[in-house]
């Protein structure tokens, strides 16, 4: 796969992630492709990308960390079995985002 094709495929996955997570009505959504940092990793060889996700949504209010992750996994569906090999998640409520001074990524 050429570098140009890989960049295009990663951008496509990022767009699909954003579209699927729109159901959570995010106030902030950042999708960062970390795939290049994992070049040579077995998951990368299979075509699955490595991503970091920061999402701020009122939908997370009253939900624990595990429930938030399940909501994200449900929204992303088959991408987690096909196009995403690894996903780092930071899922915050609006209040948590305001109170957090060090938001990664």
From TrEMBL:
BP term (GO), one? iron-sulfur cluster assembly
Q: Which InterPro entries match?
A: BolA, BolA-like_sf
Q: Which Pfam families match?
A: BolA (PF01722)
Which family is this sequence assigned to? Belongs to the BolA/IbaG family.
* PANTHER family cross-referenced by the UniProt entry: BOLA-LIKE PROTEIN 1, PTHR46230
What is the name of this protein?
BolA family transcriptional regulator
């Amino acid at each position: 796969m050429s570098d140009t094709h890989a960049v295009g495929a990663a951008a496509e996955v990022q767009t699909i992630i954003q579209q699927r997570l729109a159901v959570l009505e995010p106030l902030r959504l950042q999708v960062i492709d970390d795939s290049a940092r994992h070049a040579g990793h077995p998951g990368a060889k299979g075509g699955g990308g490595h991503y970091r996700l920061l999402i701020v949504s009122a939908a997370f209010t009253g939900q624990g960390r595990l429930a938030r992750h399940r909501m994200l996994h449900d929204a992303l569906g088959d991408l987690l079995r096909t196009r995403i090999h690894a996903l780092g998640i930071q899922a915050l409520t609006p209040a948590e985002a305001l109170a957090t001074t060090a938001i990664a990524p």
